[in-house]
Every structure is written in structure tokens, then in C-alpha cells.
Amino acid sequence: KASEEAIMEIKSKLEDLGYKVHVSKGETHCILGLIGDTSRIDISRIEANEHVDKVLRVQSPFKLASRAFHPDDTVIQVNGVKIGGEEKVVIAGPCAVESEEQLLLIAHSVKESGAHLLRGGAFKPRTSPYSFQGLGEEGLKLLRKAKEQTHLPIVTEAMCIETIDLVAEYADVIQIGARNMQNFSLLKKAGKTNKPILLKRGLSATIEEFLMAAEYIMCEGNPNVILCERGIRTFEKYTRNTLDLSAIPVIKELSHLPIIVDPSHATGKWSIVEPMSKAAIAAGADGLIIEVHHQPELALSDGAQSLKPEKFAKLMQDLNGLMKYV
Ligand code: PEP
Ligand code: MN
Fold this sequence. Notes:
With 326 residues, the chain is of the alpha/beta class. The protein has helices at residues 4-16, 43-47, 100-113, 137-150, 164-170, 184-192, 207-218, 247-254, 263-267, 270-282, 309-323, and strands at residues 20-25, 30-35, 76-78, 81-83, 89-93, 117-119, 154-157, 173-176, 197-200, 225-229, 259-261, 287-291.
């Protein structure tokens, strides 16, 4: 029941923003349909108008990350390994780099079992400030050594804008952790690096927020974002998090970016890593990131969810069988 004048005023404001506006009048409501790229529009400002009842998005608020914008799957090349292509990719290694002996032993064993990339944190985001915080640059140097010996590309986390350039010197893929998924200054800085980014879903992030975080990186000029579902927080306490398997096909519909699954952080229990790895592959994930430790009971972080090398080797064999069917 807004006056003709009020409607025309809103229409012309929207036109000034660069949209074509299609007007459709009903008995009590008038619908203004915006035609054009609405990803930059601020819905809350339109909703603030007293004559506006509701603003509904037909288009997603993310653009560069959306399937509509880029219909073909994105395949990201990391030193010859293709992520998002035909073959499933497995990233494996310890939660944290602890020592040369530990890292090299695990790196050689996961390589032997068929892993494609090596993971290991040198900067660790720990809940307690008293827990092991990582070896910092020394850890990055050990990762470089492991790469020289195994030729496995390195995935390692950058925790803040102050150290991301240092991490980028050593990493083949820079990980942005769940706790940093909405650290917008870090996302922008990651967008300015020339390394692929492994972006983990926030602990309580919706899929839309997750894809908007990817958009932050992409709109700074870095198109190489690998998404990672690592479980979200729910009321269930038996597992550390709840693995949102449905996020995989949902993200495949909404986005062209590769999506991998982290069954280690999603479950927090080594015994559940194997079935969830298989489920993730069956649901269409492009790969997995799995924590492996040769002495989980002595691990400085995430021992309870780490697979022993023999268990990882067995899982890789099973996955090879499964991958033929998906
Ligand atoms: C990790 O990969 O070791 C990690 C800390 O993961 P997340 O950010 O998903 O908790
Ligand atoms: Mn971990």
C-alpha cells in the first residue's frame, strides 16, 4: 500500500545503483525485480526503507565463487597435483610439526602409502595459550626438508597477517584455519598471495558464510581456493564436531571450487576417521586431509584423532578400491 510516489522513489534509487528495475503491481504489494549483478548490493539498506516489506535474493551474494559465474569445476594445480579434477587427492601428516625426526618419519610413511601432499602446522591455533603453539619458522624449515626428501608439496597454516608472507615462502598451499575463517584482514592478505589457499569452514559458519569467506580471497585476485569441510559445532558431544556431509553436494551445486573433507578434526577420534573418510569420498568430496602420527599418545596436539601410519596405509588401500566406484 505504498504510494505511487514512494514506489517511484525507490525504483529510481535502485536504477541509480545501475540496475534495471521490473515493476509488478498486485492488490496490496508491489514487487520491484532487480536485473543485473546484485552481489554488491547491501540488502539491509534497502530493507531500512519504511515502504519495503522484504528483500529476497534470487542470486547468491557471492559471485566469483559461484557456479553460476563459472559453470566448470575449478581444478587447482599444486606442483603437478591436481585438486578438483578426476582424481581424489589425499593430504596427510601430523597436526603439528614437532621435531625433525617426527616429521621426516611421518612424511616418508604417508608418501609410501600414497598421500599426494604433506600437512603439518608450524603455527598452531590452540584453545589454551599454555598448549604447544608450534615451532614457528623452525617448523617451516623442517617442512621444507621433508619436501626435499619426499617431493610432497606442503600444506601449512598461516595464523595472522604478520606471518603469512613468511608461511608463503615455504608453503605450496596456505591453510587458513577454522578459527580464522572470518578474519577478514587475513583473508584479504591471503588473496594477495600467489599460493593456493586451503580455507577451512568456521566452527559455526553457514555454507553461505563459508563461500563469502572464499569470495574475500578471490576478489583480491587469488582464484585458487580449496574449501575444506571440517565439522561444525552442534549439541552432540560424543564427537569433537559434527561432520556436515551434506555440505559437499550443496557446495558442489553452489560453487565451482574444489571441496575436501577433514575427518580428523570433524570427529576428534581416530576410530571414526576411516568410515568418515569413505563417506566423504562417496558423497563427492575432491579429497581428504588426514592427521597421521607415529606415536599418537605422545603427540603435542590432536593425538586422539591421529591415525598411526599402518592405519593410514590400510585406509589408503581401501580408498583406492572405493574411488573406482565414485
Ligand atoms: C588443523 O588443521 O590442525 C586445525 C587446527 O584445523 P581447524 O582449523 O579445522 O581446527
Ligand atoms: Mn589438528
